[in-house]
Amino acid sequence: MPASIRTTYSPYCLSNISDKYAGTPFAPIIVPQGASFKDMVALKGKPDIGDQINKKIIGPLVNENKLSDMPDFNDSTRLGSGKEQVDRLTNLIAIFENPALDFSKNRAEGDDILGDAYEYLMRHFATESGKSKGQFYTPAEVSRFIAQILGIRYANTTSSTTAYDPTCGSGSLLLKVADEAKTKITLYGQEKDATTSGLARMNMILHNNPEALIVQGNTLTDPKFKDGETLKTFDYVVVNPPFSDKRWSTGLDPLHDLYERFKPFGVPPAKQGDYAYLLHIVRSLKSTGKGACILPHGVLFRGNSEAEIRRALVRKGYIKGIIGLPANLFYGTGIPACIIVIDKEEAQNRKGIFMIDASAGFMKDGPKNRLRAQDIHKIVDVFTRQAEVPKYSRMVSFEEIEKNEFNLNLPRYIDSQQAEDLQDIEGHLHGGIPCADIDALERYWNVCPQLRQTLFKERRPGYLELAVDKADIKSTIYEHPEFAAFTAGMNAHFAAWRETTSAMLWQLQPGFHPKEIIDGLSENLLAHYADKPLINQYDIYQHLMDYWTETMQDDCYLIADEGWKAKTSRIIERDKKGKEKDKGWTCDLVPKSLIVARYFVKEQEAIEKLASELESVTSSMTELEEEQGGEEGAFSELDKVNKANVSSRLKDIKGDREAKDEAAVLNDWLKLANQEADLKKHLKEAESLLDSKACYYYPRLTEDDVKTLVVEDKWLSSLDTAIHGEMDRISQSLTQRVKELAERYETPMPQMTGRVAELEAKVNRHLERMGFKL
Question: Whose CB among 126, 189, 233, 250 lies 3.0–4.6 Å from 331's, allowing a Cys bridge?
Fold first, then answer.
């Protein structure tokens, strides 16, 4: 990590370490007397602030805790010199003095806001750094589902349960495994890069795992965790190694490896280190151990020595599953990767490998792709249940794998391609929609069997045609009694979930754990929509998770910290000169729009009426200007149409009989302009009055009022709108397909050819009349 960035986040880390450990006996991080963040604050404005931070703060911390790669706060090349350096460091420290950044007491116990803030900084550093430094951070979404598929949540873990990451980077993957465990477990990590290993140690501390043992060194050539002369073994191993490491064997003699990692399987290619890391995992697992490794897809099908290693691993039964991921997920590379899941416990009884092709489930997030909450949940659900889903997952027997010469490339076993939309030649020649295309919409007809008969009629055996006009397809679907009944049923289904959820949310009290709330809510909603026709339960789940991320999460932390209180605050902005400007007020928990919608309906209706009148007058003015804007129009003599120029022109032509039509138009425009100005004034006054009324109403709100506004009007209403939008999506999807098929086959080829010939003859006759001979 660049020194400038380390300099920026060091006050942040010191501030929070001081809050956690300063003065605490036997703390995992020693904060020496005089080296706390408070002591750093005392140095603000001093002419030798940089040198003093190094000597009084950084030096003692480094010595007491055996730290390395700390920033130089007296570096003039990065921080400037003299007053420039003093101002820059003073301002930097002042930023972290802000009470809003005080995470010493998380808003909700068990929700690690401090650690998550650190994760956020690292993620954005990885994003900005690209391939040069992105390798040290595994995206949180990938880390989360890897931790979940290992099944540690359901294991009987204790403090003696061990988890290990041999290329731990900043430790994010290891931490997600720890988060999944029911109890505190023991974490081990090794990282080659000295700076990054320091990041990992800091990450462990800020995520309440200060006992984690993180060491620096090359795992393949110099593994640090050993039992005597053999490798230490662990219950769980997770790793995101450097892809296709071309220098993995530098300093190592693979044929005479002291730890016998390669002897049972074979030596990986000298310029391809993927299997070296995978075999290190296998050797580092206990006989009941479970592991997961992120690797490029090439490990599944490359030949020569890698094919031999792959064959040996399959025959040993160590590979439990393979999960194919979307491309461009990782910061160090854009190529697609896979997860190889190792499970030694059931190796002897294993009959096949469970495979998932999850390459199509993602969303765009800036320059990268990102797994959505629904993608993660689906992968974990399917893998945990070993459920076979068409075009997504299946259990592949060892016999089938052997027939494919131990090639594990996912497309050999899972056809994830969408079925081709075939063209029917007879349909094009003679018209008519093939019955096969309509039969393919079976999932809709299962719900609305009579709708098919309403939309189509037989044209000839095997072919149909529309029984309604194309323009009426959507209304026919949406208004059909069967579809209306389905919609009503889905509305009632959501209403039932809303009722029970509302009762639960009303009971929330300060101090609750927001993460527990969203876990319970999301799982409940997912189960509520399981096996419902036409509705994808994971799409419904995603609506809740999106709303949680955008809005509900922040609200829950506010309530957990402060209770059901709707506090207003002023919006103060500073210009470049530091001058403050009041931009009004706001309330994070209960926005003004909710107060207005519930308590000031008449006032809002009056404002909307004024706004409508204003829009009408403005539109009339625009139309008049367009009609009279030509060379002979009433505004032709004006450089610009405004009140001053129109009034001046009226004075000029006053009494001119020949200009009476022009004067009439100008007077009409001036009348409209005065109406517009009047309406704008009244509208502004009405909005200002409503703004004041709404602001002064907040202190009158009771706790029940706030709960009603937040739970009913804000949270559940927003979810209601999003989830009910799924019904529109369903009807729109069916409408689009029916219309597409109708248009595809509505004009038979002979009729189309005849029409072309007719048009060609017309063109030829026209050309002959113009004197051209064909």
Answer: 126
Residue 519: strand pairing partners: none
Phi then psi for residue 370, to 5 deg, are -145, 140
- pLDDT (mean) for 234-251: 92
Residue 130, pLDDT > 70, answer no
Average pLDDT over residues 111-118: 49
Backbone φ, ψ for residue 341 (5° rounding) = -100, 125
Q: What does the angle CA 65 – CA 70 – CA 73 come to, to the nearest 5 degrees? A: 125
As a whole number of angstroms, the distance between CA 562 and CA 108 comes to 10
What are the residues whose beta carbons fall under 8 Å from the beta carbon of 233, sequence distance 6 or more?
227, 284, 285, 286, 289
pLDDT digits (tens, 9 = 90+) for 422-436: 898 888 888 899 999
Q: Residue 189 class from Cβ within 10 Å (0-12 exposed, 13-18 middle, 19+ buried)? A: buried
Could you tell me which of 404, 382, 294 has the C-alpha nearest to residue 338? 294
Gap between the Cα atoms of 589 and 63, Å rounded = 46
If DSSP codes are grouped into helix, strand and coil, which group holds residue 342? strand
Q: What is the Cα Rg of the chain in Å?
A: 35
- Are the CB atoms for 223 and 166 separated by under 8 Å? yes
pLDDT confidence of 735, banded at 50, 70, 90? very high
Cβ within 8 Å of residue 382, ≥6 positions away: 356, 389, 392, 393
Q: Per the structure block, which two tokens stand in for 624?
A: 């008049």
pTM above 0.85, yes or no: no
Contact predicate 201/207, CB 8 Å? no
Burial of residue 364 (number of CB atoms within 10 Å: 0-12, 13-18, 19+): exposed
Superfamily of domain 106-411: Vaccinia Virus protein VP39 (3.40.50.150)
pLDDT, one tens digit per residue, over 196-234 is 787 788 788 878 888 899 999 999 999 999 999 899 999
Angle in degrees, CA 122, 127, 132, rounded to 5: 95
- Minimal CA–CA distance to 588: which of 565, 605, 610, 617? 565
Among candidate residues 349, 301, 350, 347, the one with its CA nearest the CA of residue 324: 301
Beta strands 456-460; 463-466: pairing state: antiparallel
Other Cβ atoms closer than 10 A to 342:
22
Start-to-end CA distance of the chain, whole Å, equals: 76
Question: Shortest CA distance to 311 belongs to which of 260, 370, 364, 266?
Answer: 266
Summarised one tens digit per residue, pLDDT across range 690-706 is: 999 999 999 999 999 99
Residues 640-663: what's their mean pLDDT? 89
Using CA atoms, how far apart are residues 204 and 633, in angstroms rounded to an integer?
Answer: 76
Note the pLDDT of residue 702: 97
- Element containing residue 369 per DSSP (H, E): strand 368-370
* Three-state DSSP state, 237: strand
Question: In sequence order, which ranges of 66-160 are alpha helices (DSSP H)?
Answer: 76-79, 83-97, 113-129, 140-149
Rounded CA separation 216/222 (Å): 10
Q: What is the pLDDT of residue 1?
A: 44
**pLDDT bracket for residue 105 (50, 70, 90):** very low
- Torsion on CA atoms 114, 190, 123, 106, rounded to nearest 10: -10
Lowest mean pLDDT among 258-262, 438-442, 574-578: 574-578
Cα distances (angstroms) measured from residue 160 to each of 127, 206, 633, 760: 36, 22, 90, 86
Secondary structure of 396-457 in the HEC alphabet?
EEHHHHHHCCCCCCHHHCCCCCCCCCCCCHHHHHHCCEEHHHHHCCHHHHHHCHHHHHHHEE
Of the segments 31-35, 142-146, 368-372, 519-523, which one has the largest average pLDDT value? Answer: 519-523
641 closest CA partner among 626, 656, 657: 626
* Residue carrying structure tokens 């979307």: 326
Extract the tokens encoding 334. 């854009």
Q: Tokens 């030798």 appear where?
A: 48
The pLDDT value recorded for residue 765 is 79
Report the candidate in 238, 252, 244 with the shortest Cα–Cα distance to residue 180: 238
